[in-house]
Design goal:
With about 170 residues, the protein is an alpha+beta fold. The protein has 6 helices and 4 strands. It has a 4-stranded mixed β-sheet. β3 and β4 form a beta hairpin. Keywords: Membrane, Transmembrane, Transmembrane helix.
Length: about 170
Amino acid sequence: MRMTESLERAQQGDANSIAALLDTQLRPQGVTVSGQKTSTGLQLRLKGVTAEQQILLRPYLTEVLHQLQIPVSMVQIQGCTAQGKLVWQTNLRLAETLTAGYQPPTASVRAEQRPIKTVPQPYRHRLIGMIVLAAIAGVIVGFWYTSRQSPTPGLTETTPLPTLSPSN
C-alpha cells in the first residue's frame, strides 16, 4: 500500500493504517505499534516501551493523532514491554482537546524533544546526584582504605596519657 493511501485510510479512522503510520515512526526506537477498533473508539498497543517513556510518548501520540484528524473521539493507548507485559495505559479524548483549542507544540519545542531512550528530565537530576555521591563515597573509602594499609611514620609509637591524681 502506498503512503498516500495509508494516510487517507488513517484519516478515515482505519486502525491498522494508523498503527502502520505510527509503527514506521517508532520502530527505529524499538517500539512496535498495533491497532484495533473498539466499541468506544481506537486502541493502540505499543510494544517495547518502559513506564518512563509514557512521559514522552503521550504528547507525541496526541500531536500525531490530532494532525491526522481521525474521526475518533477516544483512543486508548497501552504501553507494553517487549515481552508483552502491560506497564502503562492512558486514554486520550480527542474530541475534548479539539473543542478546547488544542495547539500542537511549536517548532522550537519539537526541536528540544529528545529521543525516546533518554532519561526523562525529573530523573536525570537524581541520576546525576547519585553518580556524584557515589564518586565522593568512592574517594572517601579509597582514602580510608589506604590510610589503614600504610601507617604514617611517627604515629605508630604510643605515648602514655597523663593520669590525673587527686591533689591533697
